[in-house]
Amino acid sequence: MNPVNPLRPGFPKHKKSSSGGIIITIVLVLALAAGGVAYHRVSVQRKAAAAELAARKEAEAKAARARKAAELEAARRKAEERARAEAEEKARLEAERLAAEEAAGKRQNKEPEVAEPSPEEPKEEPVVQEEDPRLEIFKKPVLLVSLKANNAANRKLFTDAFNLALETGRYDLYADFLRSNLERDAVKVIKFGKFDASMYDQSPYLMRANELYQLISKVGAETIQEQIKESSPRYFYPWLFSDPSDPLRLFLRTMAREQTPGEEWGGILRKWAEFWMKTSAMPRSRYSSLALACAMLNPRIASSPSKLRASSSTNISTTPLTLEQVFEYFMEMDEARELLTDISKLSPSELLFVVDVRLPRSEMDWARKKVRLTRKGWGGAYSMIRYRMDRAALGKDPYTNYTFQEILDEGGICMDQAYFAVNTAKCNGIPSAYVTGDGNRGPHAWVNLLTTDETWQSYGGYGYNTGHFSHPHNCKSKHESTLLQGMDKKVNGARLDTSLDYLSLADLFEEMQKPDCARVMLEAATQATPGSPLGWERLIALMGRPESGTKLEEWDELVAMIKRKFRSRPDYLAMAARVEDEYIFPMRDASTNKRHVARDLKKLEKETDEGRSDLTSAAIKRQADLLMENGDKAGVAALYRKSMKDYARRAEVFEALMGQYYEYVSQDQEAVLQMAKEAESSYNRYIRTKSGDYFKVKKEAAIQRRIAGYYEKGGNGKKADSLRKDAEKREKNSKKGIREEN
Questions:
Q1: Distance from C-alpha of 237 to C-alpha of 80, rounded to nearest angstrom
Q2: 605: how many CB neighbours lie within 10 A of its CB?
Q3: Closest of 429, 451, 424, 447 to residue 366, by C-alpha
Q4: Coil, strand or helix at 297
Q5: What DSSP element (H or E) covers 680?
Q6: Left (φ > 0), alpha (ψ -120 to 50) or beta: where does 469 sit?
Q7: Is the separation of the CB atoms in 438 and 447 below 8 Å?
């Protein structure tokens, strides 16, 4: 019988057993599961190790920060204890000396016949501090810019040198120590002509060394040593150099922001120390900005009287608080939470517009309790004062004492409205400035207020763009754009402090006579905060020095960039114009310069909504100066003839142009007479109206009187008298409908 062939057709196939495959599958699954568990365990271990490493690094960094703070605090306490011990020892010796003198006097009274010569006291040899072996530390190099700068040995060397300077008062040696190390390492943050921000950020000792050096070098080591002998600075300087709130950096940034000359720093520090001593130990850092603002306030303002008037009928104090009392007042009100701002968050530059208040305590309390407005809504204080036409037109003075309550009850004009709004704001801790300017309706007063911690706002300006205020630090007249844009944190961004630090490093490079490095830092400052003019002004000044060798192409590039980036900022356009006048136009032909100026004037009018009146008149004067350089007097006359027509509808510009025109022709009587005729023609055609508006007529009459003056200087006195009489008549008629209030 033939065997059965399982592959032969007709026979069914037998299925193979699947038990072996199942076993293999199970084994594979178990193996994969075991591998997954092992991988998960390894992954968890790795994550745990990484977390542990990060935690250890964070703990080490935290410990390092704590160690540094403890070292600085220990140094400060040690310096204070040493100063206190010296004072006690001095007092003890003085008491012993007085007791000895008293005893000697008694012996002399009892035994006058015995006159034994008193033995000479041995003269105390002066201590030559240079012989102190510890001072050798000031000759050692310390790393400021390096990966090794943060190692323990280098940190200890930097800290030990700092502590020894505090202990011995040898700031002269310490300044030399800082300078030698800065000269070696500071240039390392500049690579291939570019600023290396990452290297700078990793070098905290560089910035600290520069801050300490800038203060000591500008104030003077001898000045600091002398001030430390006084009671207030003795404890102040250890705090200034080592307090965790970093008052030294606050001071340097404020000085840079306000462009305070270095020779004034010592006096400001002495005053700051006096105010600092008036605070208790706990909140000294909280009120350090307030104290610095008081120290920076111009003495003329600090000693000026209030505007209140003494009267026999009322018992009202007109004496303003002293600056020390103002400081104590704002501390007291802040602690009682009676202010509308947190003064600890305001900068010294902002607080200058608070501490310049000149009022008695009664007025300050009234403003705080009676004016019910929010900080954002404080502009409403301006309109709280009812406008009085009899005060504006008839000269009515309704006040007895000129108190806030009286102004509120009686009303007033723009200057009274601005006075009320500005000073009540200051009393509530709101920085504010009194602004004045000229326009189509004559002189006007309004206010600028810091309504939030970031933004200044203008109130009551009614479209005037010529506003100026007096800065409380130096009493210089500033355009209000300095506040509205220059100090606006939204405009400048959060990097303004960084920019100020870059300016400080630029100071160092300039002192080291490294203008290329200084220029790199100034350019970095302009890039950090382009909205702040501080870096730009410094950069222009550096480029303008003869030794800088700045080429015409570089000036062209700088001016083009400023005009492109800041075409809506009149202050920047004025800056660019100044650069052209000083550094570009002298190198070009007059016709090209004239075209540039004319084009810039058109852009100014277009980009800034008819421009700023003062900048418009300045731009026209630039064109006239270029014409006069070529002796083109006829061109000057034609320029002003056309400009007085073009800008006649802006009375303040027209008036400024007349004054400029007269300056060019004042030596030629015939030309002056011609100028007066041209001015009168434009005035009659474009300015003089039949308006019954008192303010409009008053402005027109003022211009008419000025034209009369030009006629008189041109030799036509009869015409001058006629114009003056007409102006007086028009102004008198404009007052007819105005009645004096009872």
A1: 10
A2: 16
A3: 424
A4: coil
A5: helix 669-682
A6: beta
A7: no
Segment 547-562 mean pLDDT: 90
Count other C-beta atoms under 10 Å from residue 602's C-beta.
11
Single out the residue of 198, 260, 211, 264 nearest to residue 240, CA to CA. Answer: 211
Please give the Cα distance from 416 to 350 (Å, whole number).
Answer: 23
Q: State residue 723 phi and psi, 5-degree precision.
A: -65, -40
- Across 345-359, b (16+ Cβ under 10 Å) vs e yields ebbbbbbbbbbbbbb
Tell me the domain boundaries of the chain.
132-282, 302-490
Alpha-carbon span 192 to 140, nearest angstrom: 29
Q: How far apart are the first and last CA of the chain?
A: 149
Tell me how far apart the alpha carbons of residues 317 and 165 are, in angstroms, rounded to a whole number.
Answer: 49
Q: How many residues does the chain have?
A: 742
Decide if 211 contacts 251 (C-beta within 8 A): no
Would you say 535 and 529 are in contact if contact means Cβ atoms under 8 Å apart?
yes
Q: Are the C-beta atoms of 413 and 391 separated by less than 8 Å? A: yes
- Lookup result for tokens 């008149």: 617
Domain 302-490 in this protein, CATH class: alpha beta
Q: Is the pLDDT of residue 422 over 60?
A: yes
Alpha helices in 580-668 (DSSP H): 590-607, 613-629, 633-646, 651-665
Three-state secondary structure string covering 603-626: HHHHHCCCCCHHHHHHHHHHHHHH
Q: Are 405 and 370 in contact (CB under 8 A)?
A: yes
State the Cα torsion 186-188-190-192 to the nearest 10°. 150
3-state secondary structure 152-186: HHHHHHHHHHHHHHHHHCCHHHHHHHHHHHHHHHH
By the 8 A CB rule, do 233 and 269 touch?
yes
Tokens representing 189?
Answer: 């943050």
Question: Average pLDDT of 130-145?
Answer: 86
Beta strands 194-195; 190-191: pairing state: antiparallel
Structure tokens at 564: 């492109």
Apex 540 CA angle, 536 and 545, nearest 5: 155
- pLDDT (tens digit per residue) in 710-741: 999 999 999 999 999 999 999 999 998 889 88
- Which two structure tokens, joined as six digits, stand for 338? 């009676």
Of the candidates 379, 426, 569, the one whose C-alpha atom is nearest the C-alpha of residue 485 is 569
Residue 107, pLDDT score: 45
* pLDDT given at position 592: 76
Please state the rounded mean pLDDT for residues 622-643: 88
Could you tell me which residue, 440 or 77, shows the higher pLDDT? Answer: 440
Q: How far apart are CA 371 and CA 592, in angstroms?
A: 58
- CA pair distance 299, 323, nearest whole angstrom: 10
pLDDT tier for residue 120 given thresholds of 50, 70 and 90 = low
